[in-house]
Structure prediction request, 285 residues.
Amino acid sequence: MATPRLLASPTCLSCLRRLAQPASLSPASWTQTRAKATKAELEDLQGTPVRLLCNIATFGRKHAIIRVKAGRMRNIWFPKGAAEYMTKQRFAELGLTEAAIGVRDRTFGTKLIPDSDQTKSTASDTKSKRKEVLTLPAEETHTLLTTLLPEVLVFPRAIVAAAPAPPPQPSVPRSPSLAANAASSSIEPASPASAAATVTPIFGSVSRTDIIALIKERLLENSQGSRVALEPESLELLGLDPEHDGENRIKRLGTFELLISPGVNVQGTPLDPVRRLVQVVAEDS
Prediction:
């Protein structure tokens, strides 16, 4: 059976190359396959034609003619004068046709960010040095804390309403001898549960972050107060009860001792902590 003749000579360069190969004997091998266009590529081929009046990153250079979404042009670029509409009249004024419409350049204006360990360490060192320059030395921090902080830091909090007491039991008539024995047996020492009843819980808590926020607010009275660097680890609360309080947070009314560590001096020796009191009081209703 003879090979079928082609109706027209191929003009595609890729088809001519396939014809030049010995294995290209069947017309089925001349069929071209095109990859499926991505969503981004389809968006670049649709939209309103515009002409950029300045360089815009990920879109193109100045004077480039591309297609963009109508909303971007209407709400962002056109009010800012970043681009102009390319109407038929504007194409004629510039002596161009719609064939001059190009495709968005998504790589324009982007920079490659090096991701090496050396760059990361250099950036972290620079940040730490900048922080050291902005923060006060430990000696000056100790002086500001001692001078500006009051002796008692007060935190008003709403209290949790106590459960109502159970109604009293009705009295039962007894003989005089039984009543005397009952009275003597009812006199017993107070149990630990009655002592725990004096604990007044509060809504929420007073954490070390809350205390730092109040301390920084008081330090702003001095021009150098904003340079004091305090972290939650710089504070230590004394007198917390694991049964009624959380970890490093107060959950009841009372007065607690606070130790504030200002840091270490130039010789690397920790300075004495600043001692203050934290008082949690009932909030006025």
The mean pLDDT is 78. Strands lie at 48-52, 65-68, 83-85, 152-157, 201-207, 235-238, 249-252, 254-260, 274-282. The first helix runs from residue 13 to 20.
